[in-house]
């Protein structure tokens, strides 16, 4: 019998090379194309593209004076309202506000009730586990307003860290988290808004309220006979940012660059000075 193994090797070796080349041709290019399709699909589902198609930017927010509140005419005004409105204008769309309870605002974002949270939300590790944050667009902190009658002379955090001390604040806020962390022995009571917390202290039912700057300062200015600020500076510093759903790099890219540009042209600083340093807007508060 003639040995044909060498012949088979010579005959099939080129064929195998041809098949390899054919495989590279047949499967390599579609794989690249599929990658491009996947990226295109991801971009198409970005919040930015959805907003452009819809023509509205749906903004999740909650009412906090002076971040967002209704004036005497029932219109939403405030720092965050200005920020969201300007952002929408720069996108060529209309801002649509979706008032939401603060302690449920991240679940509402994840459920798709709105496109982004623009409401003075402080970046925390716990929140960041569930949502992505932009670069900060305002620097704030946690401050305290205390009762002159119940807390006279109490000017250290340790003085408030006792079981017989009652501290109040708005439910679900970073101020409450700071109080729990820094004054764990105090009795902590939570309310649905800052106004209720302030009233508790003014009426002598709590020693102090904690809140985000500048709310405690404004409370002392509005109630000089009943309240004082125990500390010259906020006892916690923090940064506020917009929150969006995860897996959306295009949204983060756009929002981060928008924040950078509005910082560079001074617009954000101008708005912060108007809403947080001055109170010329005070006459717009409901009676």
What would you say about this model in short?
The protein has 287 residues and is of the alpha/beta class. Helices cover 45% and strands 21% of the residues. It has 2 domains: 47-139 and 240-284, D-Maltodextrin-Binding Protein, domain 2; 140-237, Periplasmic binding protein-like II (D-Maltodextrin-Binding Protein, domain 2, 3-Layer(aba) Sandwich).
Q: Can you offer a commentary on this structure?
A:
33% of the residues are buried. 45% of the residues lie in helices and 21% in strands. With 287 residues, it is of the alpha/beta class. It starts with a helix and ends in a 10-residue tail after the last helix. It contains eleven helices and twelve strands. It folds into two domains: 138 residues, Periplasmic binding protein-like II (D-Maltodextrin-Binding Protein, domain 2, 3-Layer(aba) Sandwich), CATH 3.40.190; 98 residues, Periplasmic binding protein-like II (D-Maltodextrin-Binding Protein, domain 2), CATH 3.40.190. The strands form two sheets. Strands 1, 4, 5, 6, 7, 8, 9, 10, 11 and 12 form a ten-stranded mixed β-sheet that branches. A two-stranded antiparallel sheet has the order 2-3.
- State the distance separating the first and last CA atoms: 110 Å
What is the tally of beta strands? Answer: 12
- H and E order: HHEEEHEHEHEEHEHEHEHEEHH
Helix content: 40-55%
CATH architecture of the largest domain: 3-Layer(aba) Sandwich
Report the C-alpha radius of gyration, rounded: 28 Å
Anisotropy-based shape: globular
Task: Quickly count the helices.
Answer: 11
